[in-house]
Amino acid sequence: MQSLLAELEQKNWGKVLYHEPLAKHTTWKIGGPADCLIIPHGIDQLVSTIQWLNEHDIPWTGLGRGSNLLVSDKGIRGVVIKTGGGLDYAHFDGTTVRAGAGYSFIKLAIMASKEGLSGLEFAGGIPGTVGGAVYMNAGAHGSDVSRIFKSAVIVRENGELATYDLEDMAFSYRHSILHEQRGIVVEATFQLAEGKREEIEAVYAANKGRRLSTQPLQLASCGSVFRNPTGDFAARLIQEAGLKGLRVGAAEVSQQHANFIINTGQAKAEDVLTLIEQIKHIVKDRYGVDLVPEVLVVGER
Questions:
Q1: 147 carries an active-site annotation
Q2: Ramachandran assignment for 4, one of left (phi > 0), alpha (psi -120 to 50 degrees), beta (any other)
Q3: Which of 34, 43, 227, 287 is in the most buried spot, having the most CB atoms within 10 Å?
């Protein structure tokens, strides 16, 4: 495969890095190396890369900013494709906004508020990119991506470009069709609404302030680890079980927000996975509730 990857590098479709530690590309700052990581220059190069990898039967994995993601300590075999280069743009047209998958979701919300457009206030403090937000149907404060989603351009697993509308995405709580049908979001269009700039900015600021005061956003984490059970909150169950501060290696249940696991130093993926299993077991034993992880685990085990 090494000779094939050298051929891929010569095509100049993007930046190519060999044996790249993925801890440098995740918000948890955890993860072993990728055999090869490529950051395509734009959509055309992304499509060409995927088609070429498929032709040569080289496995590939998509990666955005790396939030809501746990990469194994052994890393990822094959090629990791990181969106960002050439996909970090946003264009407003009336009440719609079209944004590249690599664009910061928080920055998009800030820009929308300055334009006097309502709908993205819930994104105050949500980490990650537009692509990741669409993939996970990111949400908070009673709203989520599905409420404003209009369409997305996606590179399917076979390397073909396709446009998905709201129905195609099959959104549900922290879920989209891309969890079953592999593909990479390259662009998304959102439908916003006109509003008063001062009011929109105030709601956005309040949401962001609430997250900053209640979540350890200054520390390495993936965001929320578990989905909220119907009618309840994972953080409440974990806190009531007395699990704040529970630690395995350098991975620790946050003292500030019980649904966050923070990397206090050199945490390993196995530390986090062990801690997740301990939390699930204790909560199930005490409350009869099965906590479902929201975080996606990838890589060689």
A1: no
A2: alpha
A3: 34
